[in-house]
Amino acid sequence: MKIHCPILGRPTVARQTAYSHGEWSIVQCTETGFVFLQNPPSYGRLESEFAWEATAAEQTESRRRQYPLQKAISRSLSGIKNWLFPRRNRFFTLARHHLPANHEGPICVLDIGCGGGEMLMDLHSRFQHQQRQVIPQGIEISLQLAESANQRVATLGGKVLQDSAIGGTEQLAPGSVDIAIMSSFLEHEAQPLELLVALHHALTDHGAIILKVPNFACWNRHLRRGNWPGFRYPDHVNYFTPQTLSALASQAGLSCRQTFLDTIPSSDNMYAVLKKQPAAESAHTDVPSGATANSSPPAEARQAA
What we know:
- The chain is α/β, with parallel strands linked by helices.
- The chain has a domain at 52-88.
- Helix content is 36%, strand content 22%.
- The strands form 2 sheets. It has a 7-stranded mixed β-sheet with strand order 7-6-5-8-9-12-11.
- Helix 2 packs across helix 3 (68-84) and helix 8 (192-202) runs antiparallel to helix 11 (298-304).
- The longest helix has 17 residues, at 68-84.
- The chain starts with a strand and ends with a helix.
- Residues 282-305 have low confidence and may be disordered.
């Protein structure tokens, strides 16, 4: 069957997987190997019926009842990690590393899917301790969370837009964002290629997108199969591996930088840094074997998507 592939931005052949659940159909693109939800909910339903603050609490409680031992072990390991490595923030570490050494003036930090604004507040505080000024901006589709976040960051001279990720990003001035954060967000976006193309325009030439997503290639997913906690129906619509995430970035004219620690298979999640490719390199994509790359520049990719 032919289905629109979110990575390629066009219809392609896909096959059913064993991970579909009820009305939610999870398929795999035969060209890229990308696994995704064939029938994601509309943005309107995500604003209220499937708002993150509601579904996250519900699914956490459901998994606690179904797998009490695994949840107890996970909480214990998280507690030990936080005790050994207090107040670590991988996003701050990566943002600081990828900012140009000669960067002057305020740092525009955009958090997509910013929730209640906690990440923006934390990053502002950390940069402030280094005598760096941050202009915090956020985009949040949930009405309740967007209002709460906007009230918080407004005290720091920032602003949060209540909109879809693509709609909010397209309101930003070209070349205005230094660091874009997506913490456990891109797996929720039904149009990831269109979003990355929009971000490509919003980024400064040396800007970076720093993201964290569930790793479909992790050991735990192979071990637990359909019981892997990375499956969340229907708000997780994309299931990335390092290879398919790199393919998506390349389609949008971005490079995908990951170290071994960013993709360590013992973790359910992975990190990545996406940056603009030099013009000479943007025509050469890095996709999984058998994949068809779109060598068009970002503006054309937006029209084709």
